[in-house]
Amino acid sequence: MSHRKRDTCRLCGDRRLKLVIELGPMPLANAFLRSPDDFASEPRFPLGLSVCESCALVQLVDVIEPEVLFRDYIYVTGISDTISRHNLTYAAALVERLHLGPSDLVIEVASNDGSLLQAFARHGVRTLGIEPARNIAALARQAGIETIDRFFDATLARDVRDDRGPARAVLANNVLAHVDDPVDFLRGCRELVAEDGLIAIEVPSLGDLLDRLEYDTIYHEHLCYFSVTTLARLCDRAELRIASVRHVPVHGGSLRLYVSRSAGPRDPDLEREVRDEHEAGLSEWARYEAFGRDVHANRAAIRSLLTKLREEGKTLAAYGAPAKSTTLLNFCGIGPDGLPYTVDKNPMKVGRYTPGTHLPILPVSTLAERRPDYTMILVWNLADEIVRQEQAYLDGRGRFLVPLPAPRVV
After folding, report:
1. CB atoms within 10 A of CB 325
2. Phi, psi dihedrals of residue 350, rounded to the nearest 5°
3. Contact assessment for residue 393 and residue 384, using Cβ atoms and an 8 Å cutoff
4. What span, in angstroms and rounded, lies between the C-alpha atoms of 207 and 275?
5. Upstream peptide bond of 360 is cis (omega within 30 degrees of 0)
6. Which of 14, 147, 341, 350 has an alpha carbon 20 to 30 Å from 322's alpha carbon atom?
7. CB neighbours of 152 closer than 8 A, spacing ≥ 6?
8. Domains in the chain and their CATH numbers?
9. φ, ψ at 128 (rounded to 5°)
C-alpha cells in the first residue's frame, strides 16, 4: 500500500505521459540501512522519468506514500557551510524586500531542522516551521524554532492562519517538487500569506538538470522537475502571480520565485525566461531523448573509469551519502567492490549503509586515516566546500573525482 502509480499529469490532468528514462527498480533514496541483516528485505520500487506531452511538466508516475518517505527523515539542512551561507543571504534579501520587523510572521513549509528560519530569527521577526518528520522537527525545537510536525495542505494552512494570522512571508524551499498535488500545496500557501506578503519558492531547475546531466537528483521524493514555464502555469492554476524569478547556484542550480496573491501584469523577465526555455527545447521530445542517451553514456564512463583505476592498483573511496547518491550508485551498479566505503558529516548516517548498494558510511576523518588514492564526491553540489575542507587530503596526494556531467578529476 506504500506504492501506487498515477496515470494523469499533476499540472494539467492529461494522460499523455511519455517515459523519458527508466532508472529502477530503486530503493528509497533516504532509506539508509542500520545492519547487514536488513539487506535481504530491502524494498525497491520502479523509478522512471516521464514528461507530459500536453503541458511539458516532467514528473514521476510512481508515488510512494509521504508517511513512508518523510515521517522519520535523515536529511538535515544545517550541516553544510554552503547552505548555511545561502540561508543567511536568502533571509537578508527577503527581510529587505518586505521590510520585515518584529511584528511580522515568517512561516516555512518543510522547515527541516529550522536552519533557514534561524536566519530570519536573527533579524527579529517571528517564525513558525511546519515539518512532518517528527525527529527533524524535534531538532528544530531544540534550536528554538517553534515547529508543527504535520504534513502541509490547504486545510492545515487555514487552521494556522486562523490561529496565528497571515504571514508576511511563506517559504517553500525544496518542497514543491515533493508533493503529489502541487496545485493544492500552492493554494495552501495562498491561504497563509498576507495580501502584501510574498511566497518564496526554491526548486531545482529542470534546465540545469538537463544541461548538467544531473540525473542522480531523480528519486522518489522528487515527484516533479520544474521549468519556469511549468511553474508559471502552476501558479496560474493556484491563482497566484509570479512577481520575480531568478537563478540561484545551490543544489546544482535552482530557481527562486517570489509569488504573490495580487493580480497584475506578468514580469517581463518571466516572459524572457519562458521564451529562452522554448528555444532550449524544454518542450520538445528530442531534448529528453538526448538526455536519456547521455545518462546511459555517463554510466558507462563512470564504470570504465573506476575499473581502470582498480586495475592500476589505486585505492578508492567516496565522499558523501546524499539522497542523490542512491540513484547514481544503483543505476551505475557500484557497490563495495567498486567503492569500498563512503564518508559523511551527518552523524545520523555514519554507521549505516547506503540504500541498495550497501556501502558502509564512515566518519569524514576516515579519509585522513586511510588516505585512498581517489575519492569520488557523491555530494558534487558541495564539491568546492569539500575541497576546501579536505586540503590535507589533497596535500597528501589524494585526488577527488566528480561523476557528473562527466567523470573527472578535480
Report:
1. 29
2. -60, 130
3. no
4. 13
5. no
6. 147
7. 109, 110, 130, 132, 185, 188
8. 3-60 (no CATH), 77-269 (3.40.50.150), 286-409 (3.40.50.720)
9. -150, 130
Residue 189 in grid coordinates: 500557501
